[in-house]
Design goal:
This protein is α+β, with helices and mostly antiparallel strands. It has five helices and four strands. It holds the Pfam family Glutaredoxin.
C-alpha cells in the first residue's frame, strides 16, 4: 500500500530518460550507444520531426538547437557526458537508477551505472 507521499513522488519521477537528437549528429550517436549499454528506459525524440521538441531544446540551450539534449525530471543537460546523465538519473529518478543496477539479462548488455 502506498502513502500519499510515495504516490506523489512516483507521479513526479520520470519514467524514462528523455534523449533529444537529430540525424547526422555524431555526439548523439555516441551518447545513444552509451545509454543503450545502461539499459535505462530512454525516450528518443528527433527534433527535426517534432517542432515542440526543437522548441524545448532551444529553451534550455540559449535559443540554439544543440543536441544531444537530455532531460531527467527537472534536470536539463545540453551535450552531456554519460556520467552527467547517470548522476541526474541517480538524483532525479532513483527508481530508474535501481533498474540500471540490476544484474544483466542473459545475452544482454551488463547494466552500467558508474559511481552509483
Amino acid at each position: 500500500m502506498s502513502t500519499p507521499e510515495s504516490g506523489e513522488q512516483a507521479a513526479t519521477e520520470p519514467a524514462a530518460v528523455e534523449f533529444y537528437w537529430r540525424p547526422g549528429c555524431g555526439f548523439c550517436a555516441r551518447l545513444r550507444a552509451q545509454l543503450n549499454k545502461t539499459e535505462l528506459p530512454v525516450q528518443e525524440v528527433n527534433i527535426w520531426d517534432d517542432p515542440e521538441a526543437a522548441a524545448r531544446v532551444r529553451a534550455v540551450a540559449s535559443g540554439n538547437e544543440v543536441v544531444p539534449t537530455v532531460f531527467v525530471g527537472p534536470a536539463a543537460m545540453v551535450n552531456p557526458s554519460i556520467d552527467q546523465v547517470l548522476a541526474a538519473v541517480r538524483e532525479h529518478a532513483p527508481a530508474l537508477a535501481e533498474l540500471a543496477e540490476e544484474p544483466a539479462k542473459p545475452g544482454g548488455w551488463r547494466r552500467w551505472l558508474p559511481g552509483g
